[in-house]
Fold this sequence. Notes:
Elements: H1 11-24, H2 28-52, H3 59-75, H4 81-87, H5 94-105, H6 108-115, E1 120-121, H7 130-146, H8 156-175, E2 176-177, H9 180-189, H10 191-209, E3 214-218, E4 243-247
Antiparallel strand pairs: 1-2, 3-4
Amino acid sequence: MSELLSIRLQENEKEALALSSQLSGMPVSKVIMPFISEGAKVSLGAALLFRIDTNVYRRDHFEDFMELVHRPLKTGGQLFSSAIVDHHQNQVPKIIWDFFEMLFETRAVSRLNSSLEEVLLETDTSYVTSEFLGTLCYSIGDTYLSMGGSLDSMNYQLASEVFFHRMVYFFYRSNAKGTAKALSTQWYSKGDLVSKIVGEMNDRYNERTGSSVLEAIVVSSPRKKRGRPKTKVQKELPPARGVMARELR
């Protein structure tokens, strides 16, 4: 990608940015940078989420999901956003609902309750709202970047592990009852058990769906480098569209 990023906006939106810049006394780039940074992580997390889901990827489904994620921002929040998600279940990747089935299959709740001290973990899915989906996508994208996930091609194994870990974390945060100190200390002190449960969920999901870990091989032409070209030019593969995948045994 070029260092210069061009964004197409409607004329009134460009004028709005110019006015924001004038009123705030800051350059336009600084005014919108926090939103671009956040949006990049949300869109990355959503794309990773759709690619680890076993349903066949469709662009229109992805666009519908992004519309659902951005709905609270456009409408100023929803009092009954969980009902909105229930009404639009087809827009949500199936792996979200599979997660709750695997909570039951792995006996995650009972195992955690047996280990946690001064904390009671209940089972409730009402926190899965439009706002939550946006937070989940941001968290997946942000964690994938912070853990050094490949940006040339998708690291499926890392993305899958990040998804299940973040889902367990949000499930705990939304359903665990106890003092603030107990909730914090118990989550970190039981990290080994949490990691074990996350690994079991990941393995069960792969077994259930027949998913295989894929290593993406980008076959597009390499990026052009600046400066004077080398005297000896090596032959390069012709540019090709798309990505090939090789199954790892």
